[in-house]
Specification:
With about 425 residues, this protein is of the alpha/beta class. The chain is about 45% helix and about 15% strand. α3 packs antiparallel against α8 (about 185-195). The relative contact order is 0.14.
């Protein structure tokens, strides 16, 4: 755990826009992409055996309906209820967001209507293998369903026995996914980007993955739309002397258990709070259920930064642009309003970052690596195309007649003006 009293420039130097693509990663990923593009299913099967140690036939690439039905017998009623509640809350928020995207403006006889149209298809990558993240499936798929996307497919790596985590399959069924494929890594990204005999091409690929998945998404972005990179989890706690150091330690540890590469920090105006939080972090990490993972993340990506004022703390938060920002101050709402570069803000002591990871109605697929300076988290808007519809009366066209002629003549496009004049002859 690093403790700073001066601006931690080493942290900021590795954030957007300073981060660059890893050439070695692309050297590994590009041949996979090209092979899948050229060979289709045979390449998918070959790479799945090479990287996942799983031998599949063409008929096994897609998960069958019977396997989805069987998955329900392998999960608990509480887990199903939790998935449904997470879906319900996120659906409610995104449906309300959708309403605000349509409006009509009347301009002197001209109606300008802003509307939205959904993407035709979306592919969602869901990490699998040793760990499963059905919550990430919910976060990616629900906004797409609210948007009205026509076809949604999921790719997720199989286990050694060819199975897919049953809770992931149940989440896919609850959220209305059309197809699930036993595919992971760069080959899954290639399948969704270029299509194969079994996997249909999609219009956009979303969802977090490892460094190879992230590199593959960047490499195929000229052929298919992709979301912003979603790397290892990040949380910054912004606190003053009023905060409870015990809660801060709990929340930092909860994000550290996501695994290697994570960033877990505290910026505070209180040296005493910093000392107490550091002590509690050390004690709690040693007792954490995933102790080795937590201690590794805290050792490599954990830090505490003591500042002189809340203004300085806010300035640092904006410079870091973290995925999650918890605000634990005497007036957290006031402080939260001053921060502009962040994926998601959790206000006050009763909104732990762990709660927004699951069931608060907010999406947990958020920009990392400093991309929060320019990019939001996943919402219904990621699956929509804004479309403007214009309808004018004759009088409405008359009101802009002279302006169109003036501009078309100035730009050397006289036929534009004649097209308008023709309406008045």
């Amino acid at each position: 755990m690093r403790v700073y009293k001066d601006l931690p420039t080493d942290l900021l130097d590795n954030r957007w826009p300073n981060a660059s693509a890893d050439g070695e990663l692309l050297d590994v990923v590009n041949p996979i992409l090209e092979s899948v593009k050229a060979e289709g299913d045979s390449a998918l099967i070959r790479f799945t055996e090479r990287f996942d140690g799983v031998s599949l036939t063409t008929g096994e690439l897609m998960v069958g309906v019977d396997e989805v039905e069987e998955a329900y017998s392998m999960v608990t009623e509480e887990q199903v209820a939790a998935l449904k509640e997470s879906k319900r809350r996120l659906e409610t928020v995104e449906s309300e967001r959708l309403k605000g995207l349509t409006f009509i403006v009347e301009l002197d006889g001209v109606n300008v209507r802003s509307t939205v149209k959904p993407l035709g298809s979306v592919g969602c990558y869901v990490p699998g293998g040793k760990a499963a993240y059905p919550s990430s499936l919910v976060m990616n798929v629900v906004p797409a369903k609210v948007a009205g996307v026509g076809r949604i497919v999921v790719c997720t790596p199989p286990g050694k026995d060819k199975s897919i985590n049953p809770l992931t399959l149940v989440a896919a069924d609850i959220c209305g996914v059309d197809r699930v494929y036993r595919l992971g890594g760069a080959q899954a990204v290639a399948a969704m980007a270029y299509g194969s005999e079994t996997v249909p091409r999609v219009d956009k690929i979303v969802g977090p993955g490892n460094k190879y998945v992230t590199a593959a998404k960047a490499a195929v972005s000229d052929a298919v739309a992709v979301d912003k990179p979603a790397g290892p989890s990040e949380v910054l706690v912004l606190a003053d002397a009023a905060a409870d150091p015990r809660l801060i330690a709990l929340d930092m540890i909860s994000q550290a258990e996501h695994g290697p590469g994570g960033l877990v920090g505290l910026v505070t105006t209180s040296p005493r709070l910093a000392e107490e939080a550091e002590r509690l972090l050390s004690e709690s990490a040693a007792k954490a259920p995933r102790m080795s993972v937590v201690e590794e993340v805290l050792g490599e990506g954990g830090f505490i930064y003591v500042v002189d004022s809340l203004e300085e703390a806010v300035e640092f938060a904006d410079a870091l642009a973290p995925e999650h920002l918890e605000v634990m101050t005497a007036d957290p709402q006031l402080v939260a309003e001053k921060v502009s570069s962040v994926g998601l803000i959790q206000v006050g002591p009763y909104t732990p970052v762990a709660s927004t990871d699951y069931c608060m109605g907010a999406n947990h697929v958020l920009p990392t690596g400093g991309y929060a300076k320019i990019s939001p988290g996943i919402t219904v808007m990621d699956y929509l195309k804004p479309v403007t519809v214009v309808e004018s009366t004759l009088e409405g066209l008359r009101n802009v007649r002279s302006h169109i002629k003036a501009l078309s003549d100035a730009e050397g496009l006289p036929s534009h003006g004649l097209a308008v004049e023709g309406r008045f002859r």
